[in-house]
Specification:
19% helix; 12-stranded antiparallel β-sheet; hydrolase; TesB_ACOT8-like_N; 37% strand; TesB_C; Acyl-CoA thioesterase 2; Porin; 288 residues; EC 3.1.2.20
Length: 288
C-alpha cells in the first residue's frame, strides 16, 4: 500500500469524541486550504458511523468557508430520521467555532427493482494511456510552478486523462473530459471505505471541466476557483482501488459559476455513481 493511500485511510478514520460528534484531521501537505473531497469523505464517514444495516446512496453538500488544514475539523451528526427503508443524516463540519460545510446523506436497506443505465463512453483502456509517471517525465519540467507542485506531490488517487490537450495547451475545447481514476494502492474490503474514498475522489478534476471551453486552468492566477456545492448518487457496488472511468461534462458556466456533471463507470461498463457540482470560477480584478 502506498504511503499516500495509508494517509488517506488514516484521515478517514475519524476520532469519536462523543455521541454524534467526531474529529478529523488534515494531511500535512502544505495546502492553504483543506481539499473539498477530504471534507466530503470525512463527513460521509461521520454519518455512516451512526447508521447500521444500510448503505449510503446519496449525499448533497454545501461548502461555506475554506477549511483550515492546520486545525482539526469537528463533525456533528444530526440523526434526522430512521425509517423502515431509509435513514437520513445531516452533518455539519466546524472549525474555529463556525460551520465550514454541511451535508445531507441518505442510507437505504438493500432492495431489488427495475434496472437500467446509460452506456459507458467508448474510450481507450487505462493501460493504453500514459501513467502519471509518464506524464511527469514528459511535461513537468516545462510546467508552471503551481502545476508542477500539484503533480509532483504523492497522491492517493491516480488520474489518467484520455485527452491531454487541456493540460498542455490553451486550446479552447468542448467542455467535457474522460479520466480513469483509482487509488494508488489496495484498500480494505469494507465497502463503506470504498464509498467514502469515491466521495473523496469525486471532487477531483470535476470543476476543471467548466474551464475547458475557455482555454483556462484552475491554476491561472487571475481565477478564483472553489467548490460551492457537490452531490453524489451511488447506484451500484464498486471498488475504488480498481479503475473507474470518470466521464465529465459542463453544460453551463455563467454568473461566475461553473456547473459540472460526472458519471463513474466500472471497466465492464457498469454505471456505479453520478455526480453534480457547481463551483466558483470568478475572474479576479486588480483590486481583488
Amino acid at each position: 500500500m502506498s504511503s499516500a493511500v495509508e494517509t488517506l485511510i488514516s484521515i478517514l478514520d475519524l476520532e469519536t469524541l462523543e455521541h454524534n460528534l467526531f474529529r478529523g484531521r488534515s494531511p500535512k501537505v502544505g495546502w492553504q486550504r483543506v481539499f473539498g473531497g477530504q471534507v466530503i469523505g470525512q463527513a460521509l464517514v461521520a454519518a455512516a458511523r451512526t447508521v447500521e444495516g444500510r448503505v449510503a446512496h446519496s449525499l448533497h453538500c454545501y461548502f461555506m468557508r475554506p477549511g483550515d488544514p492546520e486545525v482539526p475539523i469537528i463533525y456533528e451528526v444530526d440523526r434526522i430520521r430512521d425509517g423502515k427503508s431509509f435513514t437520513t443524516r445531516r452533518v455539519v463540519a466546524i472549525q474555529h467555532g463556525e460551520a465550514i460545510f454541511s451535508m445531507s446523506a441518505s442510507f437505504q436497506i438493500e432492495e431489488t427493482g427495475l434496472d437500467h443505465q446509460v452506456e459507458m463512453p467508448d474510450v481507450p483502456a487505462p493501460e493504453d494511456l500514459p501513467s502519471e509517471a509518464d506524464l511527469k517525465a514528459l511535461f513537468l519540467k516545462d510546467a508552471p510552478e503551481k502545476v508542477r507542485v500539484y503533480w509532483e506531490r504523492e497522491r492517493p488517487i491516480e488520474l489518467r486523462p484520455v485527452d491531454l490537450r487541456h493540460y498542455v495547451s490553451r486550446e479552447k475545447l468542448p467542455p467535457a473530459q474522460r479520466v480513469w481514476i483509482k487509488t494508488t494502492g489496495p484498500l480494505p474490503d469494507d465497502p463503506e471505505i470504498h464509498r467514502c474514498v469515491l466521495a473523496y475522489a469525486s471532487d477531483m478534476t470535476l470543476l476543471d471541466t467548466s474551464l475547458f471551453a475557455h482555454g483556462r486552468m484552475i491554476f491561472d492566477k487571475d481565477l478564483q476557483v472553489a467548490s460551492l456545492d457537490h452531490s453524489m448518487w451511488i447506484h451500484r457496488p464498486f471498488r475504488a482501488d480498481e479503475w473507474l472511468l470518470y466521464a465529465e461534462d459542463s453544460p453551463s458556466a455563467s454568473g461566475a459559476r461553473g456547473f459540472n456533471r460526472g458519471s463513474l463507470f466500472k471497466r465492464d461498463g457498469t454505471l456505479v455513481a453520478s455526480v453534480a457540482q457547481e463551483g466558483l470560477i470568478r475572474l479576479r480584478t486588480e483590486e481583488q
